[in-house]
Amino acid sequence: MAQVTVHDDSIQLSEPYLVEGLPGVGLVGKIATDHLIEQFSMTHYASVHCEGVPRIGVYHEEDDELKPPVRLYADPDRDLLALQSEVPVSGGDTSEFAGCVSGWLAERSVTPIYLSGRPAEKDGSPEVYGVATGDAAHHLDRAGIVPPRETGFISGPTGALLNQATRDDIGSVGLVVESDPKFPDPEAARALIQAGIAPITGIEADVDELIDQAEQIRSQREQLAERMQQVDEEESTQATPLGMYQ
């Protein structure tokens, strides 16, 4: 049965933000979300058992607790949720996955921040752009985040989540950052946090570690990045310009 199972009912949240970390181009969303979960010592709050999530168990080093591959973490002090995923969501079930997750978020008055990389040749610091659904555009205005400079689309499960929010007229934010199309990109993840997530949510996050440990992060995420290059386009979150005549 498709559902989100809460493990810790003692955690109290009041209209929180959610940071989404599904794997995609440059693994930017995953790197940024993983970093926030670790830095804030966020609590494993719930498990996501929606359609499209592989039925596997995940184990981590120095930890004997087996976990599901897609989880929600919570930080009640910052009124923050984070969706962590170890694997891609099945391309054929992205609509069901989006409906399952979006419904749960809407019931709890959560404002999701969806993250995507846009393959680009970067010149200097990666640029971060924003889009919104429902009544969430004011979050972008308040944070000074500008819309994309060209027409395009966001694919994969993140695109399905944004599409679901549009269909249901739910407030959500989509952040797009210029990123390396082939390799894990900690620099782009840092830009997402500094120029997007932090000014929207009001959190203060130390992101220097993302650059200091860039080589280690790239090495740890290389296998997943290779896997993401092989999966169907619908399984990989990505922002893609359409071009003037498309």
Short characterization:
The protein is an alpha/beta fold and 246 residues long. The protein has helices spanning 28-39, 94-107, 137-143, 156-168, 186-201, 208-212, 214-230; strands at 3-6, 17-21, 43-49, 70-75, 80-85, 111-119, 128-133, 152-155, 172-179, 238-241. It has one domain: Rossmann fold (3-Layer(aba) Sandwich), CATH 3.40.50.
Describe the structure.
The structure is a single chain. Strands 1-3-4-5-2-6-9-7 form an eight-stranded mixed beta sheet, sandwiched between helices. A two-stranded antiparallel ribbon has the order 8-10. The chain is globular. By secondary structure, it is of the alpha/beta class. The protein has a single domain, classed as PAC-like subunit (Rossmann fold, 3-Layer(aba) Sandwich). It has seven helices and ten strands. β4 and β5 form a beta hairpin. It holds the Pfam family PAC2. This is Proteasome assembly chaperone family protein. Keywords: Proteasome. It comes from Halalkalicoccus tibetensis. InterPro entries: Proteasome_assmbl_chaperone_2, PSMG2_sf.
Structural class: alpha/beta
Please identify which CATH superfamily we are dealing with: PAC-like subunit
Oligomeric state of the chains present here: single chain
Measured distance between first and last alpha carbons: 40 Å
InterPro entries: Proteasome_assmbl_chaperone_2 (IPR019151), PSMG2_sf (IPR038389)
Pfam families: PAC2
Keywords: Proteasome
Protein name: Proteasome assembly chaperone family protein
